[in-house]
Amino acid sequence: MEEGTTPANSLEPPPLPYTLRTRKRAIAFFWTLFVIDTCAQPVALYFGLWYGTNLSHNMVFTIVTAALGGISVFEYFYRLYNLFRKDSRARPLNAKKSWLDFFHINFTLVWLILAVELIVGTVQPEPYVRLVAMVLPSVMFYFGFVHLSLDVLRMMGFKAPFRISSTPKGSVMPTALYVLIEDVVAVDGGGGQMYRYALRTRYLSSPYFRRMLFEMNCFWAGGSIIWAGAITAIVFTTPEPVAYTLGWCLPFVWAALWTIITIPWVQSDLRREKKAWRENRGQLGIPFTDDIDAPHGRTRLGSVQDRLPQLFPWTREKASTPSTPEPSSPETHPEIPIQNSTCEADPQAA
């Protein structure tokens, strides 16, 4: 049996060979530097140079923008190196050496948008402070609309017009959060192609897992757009010092709040997924296929919705009925990816 696959009578869905528990210090270190770089530093430099020196306002923002984004720039080129190097174990499954993953493509587009925004906002003798304060809300708008668009296209039955990370061209459009998790963990988290393969096996095998990712994507992408809209209103209606401060700080308040909500939500849904898998003796729908019509069981959001039937009736889930799927293997279903020669398994993780 290939790595990442699970027998039809297994009591649990395919495992994911990755844990955050052993990486807590590295994650905390990175996010501490990131918050300092993209929140504390721009605000501190703005107030310190604007009110504490005789520098021109244009020079103040020249310094602020020059010092901005050091961690992000390092991360960009670190990812690029990991994806392009000859012996890369991080690039998408079965992708050519020159192919970037979906997150890096969007990373590049976001940097181009922000570069234009910062140049326009600071090139004038009197900088447009409110536009400079819109850097992080712009990122929230971009990823929110991109992630929602992918899932809308998915629900409408569109196929992937090009390779989206490990999802081949012509396959069912993947839910956007699945692609984000795949790319970030594989490259930035060091999971590599082994994690891409294991995650894709889990994604194709478990309709419940796909539904959970769809709901979480709507929660994050929708919340991102709503919060970005609220922050934009604040930025353009409050005094400039307040607008600048809140424009750089409120996105982190949103991210922290959404993370606090997400952790117990996902933990609960993963327990429900295991229960649904045991009750149905395996996966439902077409085996090892991204079948968007497959019954998936009652998620945590669905259970809450049952108590509030008047809210969002169009998102009601299909009730799953126990069924015994026909024995199958990835070889009989072309959508399950087969590891290429660059994907080397880690015996300890496996």
UniProtKB/TrEMBL annotation:
Membrane-crossing segments per the record: 26-47, 59-78, 99-119, 131-153, 218-236, 242-266
Biased composition (Low complexity): 329-338
Protein name, as recorded: Uncharacterized protein
Cytoplasm recorded as keyword: no
Top-level taxon: Eukaryota
Region described as Disordered: spans on this chain: 307-350
Taxon lineage: Eukaryota, Fungi, Dikarya, Ascomycota, Pezizomycotina
Keywords from the named record: Membrane, Transmembrane, Transmembrane helix
Keyword Repressor: no
